[in-house]
Design goal:
The protein is of the alpha/beta class and about 230 residues long. The chain has eight helices and twelve strands. A hairpin with a 3-residue loop joins strand 11 and strand 12.
């Protein structure tokens, strides 16, 4: 059964959409704010997400960006009362596949869901990459190896945590990754002890990346880290 995550802070609209989609055969989970939505997304496996834009704690644009940073290729539809072109552009930049302005008909929502799922089904045979190019370095996530091209350096075997952290940074190359997000993705929570552990792993990764001076793992003040090429 197709599973959908609906994140909508309006209890009436949220319940109405959830009941409609359930009636149409979609298993639909609902969250009422952005933080709760991200928690449910990470805990489950969803075929499609529907996010309201204006929500407490975390807006839909930020939620969509975090979903995309998590590396999961899941379609996202925004629901919003805003109709300005700039908001639509911001939504697509955040990773949206479609954008529906309130008020909307349930049948229109259903048709858009069906069209998006058909598109994703056609492209589902394309597997998620397991090899990432980082400057002159090649990171083989599946075999946990960092290979150096043309400089005589020996390949570096990575631990599981090093591989998970480097994968997250590689998926967001030249983009900042917040400390909290990295901790939750790789360690499961952002406790003090895990944060200290992550600092150690960041130092190790910097050492492994040194053979290519064009590659830098930099601190982003007040935010986190960024793998820069």
């Amino acid at each position: 059964m197709t599973t959908i995550l609906l994140v909508e802070d309006d209890p009436n609209l949220g319940q109405l959409v959830q009941e409609f989609l359930t009636m149409k055969g979609y298993a639909t989970d609902r969250a009422t704010d952005g933080n709760q939505g991200m928690q449910q997304f990470m805990a489950g496996q969803y075929d499609l997400c529907i996010f309201d834009v204006m929500m407490p704690k975390k807006d839909g644009f930020t939620l969509a960006k975090e979903v995309r940073m998590a590396g999961r290729d899941v379609p996202i539809i925004f629901l919003t009362a805003k109709s300005m072109q700039e908001d639509a552009i911001q939504g697509f930049r955040a990773g949206a596949d479609d954008y529906i302005t309130k008020p909307f008909s349930m049948e229109e929502l259903l048709l858009r869901i069906q069209a998006i799922l058909r598109r994703y089904q056609r492209s589902s045979e394309i597997a998620e990459p397991t090899t990432y190019r980082i400057g002159s370095l090649t990171f083989d996530y599946q075999h946990q190896m960092l290979n150096y091209d043309g400089n005589g350096a020996q390949p570096q075997k990575l631990t599981s945590k090093e591989s998970e952290l480097l994968k997250l940074l590689s998926q967001n190359l030249n983009q900042p990754v917040s400390r909290t997000f990295a901790l939750k993705m790789v360690w499961g929570d952002d406790s003090y002890f895990n944060a200290r552990s992550m600092d150690v792993y960041v130092t190790k990764l910097r050492k492994y990346l040194k053979p290519d001076p064009a590659v830098q793992l930099v601190n982003v003040h007040g935010e986190g880290f960024k793998l820069v090429v």
